[in-house]
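This follows on from our talk about sequence and fold. Can you supply me with one protein entry, sequence and fold together? Could you add the entry underneath, on a fresh line?
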Amino acid sequence: MTDKQREHLKNRIAVVAAWIVACLFFFPIFWMVLTSFKTEGQAIAIPPLLVFEPTLENYTEIQERTNYTKFAINSIVTAFGGTALALLIAIPSAYAMAFNTGRWTKDILMWMLSTKMLPAVGVLMPIYFLAQKTGLYDTKGLLVIIYALMNLPIVMLILFNYFREIPKEILEASRMDGTSTYNEIRQIVMPLAWGGIASTALLSIILCWNEAFWSIVLTTTDASTLTAFVASFQAPEGLFWAKVSAVSTLACAPIVVFGWLAQKQLVQGLTFGAVK
């Protein structure tokens, strides 16, 4: 076998392996969507049914039982609002750390990241108490603040690494021209790191969208998101798999479509600075 044939064989094996891994990751989503079109009896049938007559009764019952649009709007507001607030805090902070690096900069970043290791239930009572006392309980504003603070360490760390890829000579030249710090961030840093900012924002939106713990314990009716919407379909009798699958499909669909539409920006941001 020649070197060219051997290289071609390796590429074919890599492609097949990639497809296998992709199918393994996609299979739970495929099975969830498939189950959502089954009846409850078909959903728990053993062996599982691959050929059946699809039905929309689960989706119809969900629409009759709850207001899906309200939960979806709450998820959109809190996910995008939390991301916007996190970026508003993280961009100037990451700028200061990236271009004015001090002795403790990396230690501060690692300390911030280490707060993600704290179990959420460990700070549940103080946050719940403050939410009740300030009248923020069951409001979208509270979730926006919680989501922003929850994702701030990750957003800060990612933006810090992106900003460090920007040549300092560009900033030094702008400072010689008398550019203010605000204009330097707005006119130079953000355009040069736009791909990184976009991918960071997408990651934050996905994390906010999938957050379940805080949306369940800090809301009841007015500010409940789609994750709480899914949890509301649990019953003392157990899980109704067909209905839960339909609810989960409705909860996942918006963020999957959004991610698909924004995949170009996501890939651009993830590869930013990878090749010099």
About this structure: The two ends are 36 Å apart (CA to CA). Residues 226 and 252 are 9 Å apart (CA to CA).
